[in-house]
Write a structure and sequence with these properties.
By secondary structure, this protein is an all-alpha fold. It has 14 helices and no strands. It is globular.
Length: 298
């Protein structure tokens, strides 16, 4: 991997990890669903003018947005409101083994012994983390984050049924559908939205801008560029740095210190995820031609 591409690859987990910490900061001032609705509205406004309308796939994208965006981010960020960033970001990485299982069940993809070991190790780490005080005191929020990881994984598998629309087209139109869905969901299940909007500080609006433009639109611009040059298994391991970026930024910005059991359980989860996403010798192999973009949101 060229040095410039290595630096670009490092920027992706850094921007996404910092985004989770800033998201926690935004939750101090806005309800979770409202915050996410503003995030996706920002992404949609920034991108939709520059991509084509996938007319034949709009209905499917609307349905996928319900599961993979509205429900997923609703569960994840509602859960994170009661959890620390370290616990949340480590649980979120269960989306990788969930994704492998969902692909095996829905797309009949082969898991293989290496991935099976990784899945077992990752869920073993979650069992260890269940003993952490942050989880013991907030079991429902923790389960909500697990549910968010599960719905994200299923949503990513369902995106394959839409066909190769291109990453930016998919993100832009998922955001177009997710933003109003999240606004409506916020009106139905949350309260104090108008007061939160009126009283939100520049920090809260800065979080919206960061999550909408840098974390989602900008982060995926780099991500898809790298996926077009290198093998997936050369790029995917960089995502293992997201918890490090999240935990370090949470320590610096929010003064959160993760407990030892969270670190141990999280380390086990990440080892399991590494078994799944890293193939022996993948770093030495270069893709002979650009590969197709894969759609995702975070």
């Amino acid at each position: 991997m060229r040095p410039i591409h290595f630096l670009m690859a490092m920027l992706v987990p850094a921007s996404w990890g910092l985004g989770l910490t800033l998201g926690k900061l935004g939750l101090y001032e806005m309800p979770p669903l409202l915050l996410m609705s503003f995030r996706f509205a920002m992404t949609a406004v920034a991108l939709v003018w520059f991509v084509r309308m996938p007319r034949g796939a709009l209905l499917k994208l609307c349905g996928i947005a319900v599961l993979g965006c509205t429900l997923q981010y609703g569960l994840t960020f509602t859960g994170m409101k009661s959890l620390d960033v370290a616990t949340t970001t480590l649980i979120i990485h269960l989306e990788v083994p969930f994704g492998v299982i969902a692909a095996a069940l829905l797309l009949k993809e082969r898991i293989g012994w290496r991935r099976a070991i990784g899945i077992s190790v990752a869920f073993g780490g979650m069992i260890v983390m269940y003993g952490a005080p942050s989880v013991q005191q907030n079991p429902v929020p923790a389960l909500m984050v697990v549910g968010g990881a599960l719905t994200w994984a299923i949503g990513q598998v369902l995106i394959k049924s839409v066909g190769n629309l291109g990453g930016f087209v998919t993100i832009a139109w998922l955001a177009m559908f997710a933003a109003p869905q999240l606004f409506v969901a916020s009106l139905l299940v949350e309260s104090g939205q108008w007061e939160a909007i009126a009283q939100a500080s520049w920090k809260a609006w800065g979080v919206v801008v960061y999550m909408g433009l840098i974390m989602t639109a900008g982060g995926y611009a780099i991500w898809y560029h790298l996926l077009g040059i290198y093998r997936v298994n050369q790029v995917m391991p960089f995502l293992l740095l997201i918890p490090l970026a999240s935990i370090l930024s949470a320590m610096l910005i929010l003064a959160e210190i993760p407990s030892e059991i969270v670190i141990v359980g999280g380390a086990i989860i990440m080892i399991g995820v590494a078994f799944i996403v890293i193939e022996p010798g993948a770093w030495r192999r270069r893709a002979p031609a650009p590969i197709e973009e894969k759609a995702a949101t975070r």
